Amino acid sequence: DAMVIQNPRYQVTQFGKPVTLSCSQTLNHNVMYWYQQKSSQAPKLLFHYYDKDFNNEADTPDNFQSRRPNTSFCFLDIRSPGLGDAAMYLCATNRGDKGGQETQYFGPGTRLLVL
Amino acid sequence: GEDVEQSLFLSVREGDSSVINCTYTDSSSTYLYWYKQEPGAGLQLLTYIFSNMDMKQDQRLTVLLNKKDKHLSLRIADTQTGDSAIYFCAESASPGSARQLTFGSGTQLTVLP
Question: Per-residue pLDDT for B1 more than 90?
Answer without folding.
Answer: no
